């Protein structure tokens, strides 16, 4: 009964490891991009400014 479950469990484990590796890769890439940003051109963002503009 459990003979066919091992390939399925291995496949699930491979998919989980692949997804976690991709997440880690994109986290590192995002950190590198953030460090490369010219932070002098950033401005403070206030969500209330957007809400004031949308009042009818």
Task: Explain what the structure shows.
It is a single chain. The chain has helices at residues 5-36, 47-53. The chain is mainly alpha-helical and 56 residues long. The longest helix has 32 residues, at 5-36. The chain is elongated. The chain starts with a helix and ends with a helix.
**Sequence stretches where pLDDT stays below 50 over 5 or more residues:** none
Which percent range fits the helix content?
Answer: 55-70%
Computed Rg: 22 Å
Q: What number is the mean pLDDT?
A: 85
Q: Termini separation (Å)? A: 65 Å
SSE series: HH
Give the amount of beta strand, in percent.
under 5%
Task: Count the beta strands.
Answer: 0
- Output the number of helix runs: 2
| Shape estimate | elongated
Main beta sheet: strand number and arrangement?
A: none
Would you tell me the structural class of the helices and strands?
mainly alpha
In short:
By secondary structure, this protein is mostly helical. The protein contains 2 helices and no strands.
What key phrases describe this protein's structure?
56 residues; mainly alpha; 2 helices; 70% helix; elongated
What topology does this entry show?
Layout (H helix, E strand, L loop, with lengths): L4 H32 L10 H7 L3
